Amino acid sequence: QVQLVESGGGLVQAGGSLRLSCAASGSIFNIMTLGWYRQAPGKQRELVASITRGGSTNYVESVKGRFTISRDNGKNTVYMQMNSLKPEDTAVYYCNGYAYTVDGGGGDYWGQGTQVTVSS
Question: How many CB atoms lie under 10 A from the CB of residue 45?
Answer without folding.
Answer: 15
